[in-house]
Amino acid sequence: MRLRYNYRVYPDADQRRSLAQAFGCARVVFNDGLRARQAARAAGLPYVSDAELSKRVITQAKAAPERAWLGEVCAVVLQQALADLNTAYRNFFASLSGKRKGPKVAPPRFRSRKDTRQAVRFTKNARFAVTPGGKLRLPKIGDVPVRWSRPLPAEPSSVTVIKDSSGRYFASFVVETTDEPLPQVADEVGIDLGLTHFAVLSNGRKIDNPRLLRRVAKKLRKAQKALSRKAKGSANREKAVVKVAKAHARVADTRRDWAHKLSTGIIRDNQAVYVENLAVSGLARTRLAKSVHDAGWSQFVAMLEYKAARYGRTFAKIDRWFPSSKLCSACGSIATSMPLNVRSWICACGAAHDRDVNAAINVLIEGRRVVAAGRKPAAETRREAETLNACGDQVRPLLAVAQVVEAGSLRGAA
Fold first, then answer.
1. 40: which residues sit within 8 A by CB, 6+ positions away?
2. Is 276 known to be catalytic?
């Protein structure tokens, strides 16, 4: 399994200037490559191959006076920027043809120098290294101090240097790790996610929602008001932008740390974990959008999934249409309706239920059934059957979560 280990780095003034130059050169190469392919398409010419594009925007561009400064940065940085463009095009074409599942992928767009997040990637060909003194040696940048929060489990295959919107620098190492199965335990758990309680477990445990963004809402509102009063293009506005970005970064860091600790504890204590496959993107378009984003369900579920795979635990998602709240976990009957204001109810069989605990128990039961049967939930299988035409082909692609691979730079990241 490939994992990404992030560490804070502290480049000095000269190294920050060198990194800024690398960010800019990578962005220019990406934009030049995109412009060349768009021009070829507009002129009715064949698609420019990866090798030909590299020759035009890197090799030949370095020889031209207007692009001679591309030779001042590591060549691998430029090649990786072009590799990101090629990957973006492949994803776009795969999405058009239906080979790539999930939401439609848009064609690549130009990167702006005004984007607050910047990144460049170094592979083994760049010969980056960790020095005996614990510094990260980057070509044409130098030895950058690193704050090692934990040792790397193996030799990294690449490192991405990132500058976030708050002005912090990070080194993100991609490492190939081996599975580390934990000792088997007898407990299994179903999880019902919500807003009043972040998670309710089938064993009756209720985990409060930390509401991290709501806690700092007053301070964040004050910083955003101060930003709105600053003149555009002024130095004071730049300082105010960084102040707002730092406030958001603190919330994001705290939420990530909290989710890591909670997910690790659940995976450690349970042999199998089952959760609902929530439609977060749909819920985020309702009046509860701010609370949904603040909860961070998707991030938490993704942590559970990869930690279960790494540590030898069973993990499964239950279909989002499964009636976990309306289903009696004692007799199996389904209530006709269950408004959100009903937090406890009594079934006709006489069983008294806490709404959330009952839902978590039903998630556990359904998860066991799905894993034992070795098939998808019944509702999902039914929907797939309904999207087949007479020839047995898919009428429309099914929604699926894209798998995490070695990340290139996002739009605006280089």
1. 46, 47, 48
2. yes
Distance CA 119, CA 258 (A): 26
> Backbone phi, then psi, for 59, in 5-degree steps?
-65, -55
Q: What confidence tens digit (pLDDT) does each residue in 339-394 have? A: 888 888 888 888 888 889 999 999 999 999 999 888 544 344 334 433 333 333 33
- The reply to whether 50 belongs to the active site is no
Is the distance from CB of 320 to CB of 277 less than 8 angstroms? yes
SS (H, E, C) the chain: CEEEEEEEECCCHHHHHHHHHHHHHHHHHHHHHHHHHHHHHHCCCCCCCHHHHHHHHHHHHHHCHHHHHHHHCCHHHHHHHHHHHHHHHHHHHHHHHCCCCCCCCCCCCCCCCCCCCEEEEEEHHHCCEECCCCCEEECCCEEECEECCCCCCCCCCEEEEEECCCCCEEEEEEEECCCCCCCCCCCEEEEEECCCEEEEECCCCEEECCCHHHHCHHHHHHHHHHHHCCCCCCHHHHHHHHHHHHHHHHHHHHHHHHHHHHHHHHHHHCCEEEEECCCHHHHCCCCCHHHHHHHCHHHHHHHHHHHHHHCCCEEEEECCCCCCCCECCCCCCECCCCCCCCCEEECCCCCEEEHHHHHHHHHHHHHHHHHHHCCCCHHHHHHHHHCECCCCCECCCCCCCCCCCCCCCCCCCC
The first and second tokens of residue 187, run together, are: 């407990």
The one catalytic residue in 294, 305, 356, 366 is 356
Q: Are 172 and 413 in contact (CB under 8 A)?
A: no
Alpha carbon distance 336, 357 (integer Å): 19
Catalytic residue among 32, 84, 192, 305: 192
Q: Which of 32, 84, 188, 276 is catalytic?
A: 276
Q: Is 294 a catalytic residue?
A: no
- Residue 17 CB contacts under 8 Å (≥ 6 apart), including other chains: none
pLDDT tens per residue across span 208-256: 999 999 999 999 999 999 999 999 989 999 999 999 999 999 999 999 9
How far apart CA 29 and CA 362 sit, in angstroms, is 53
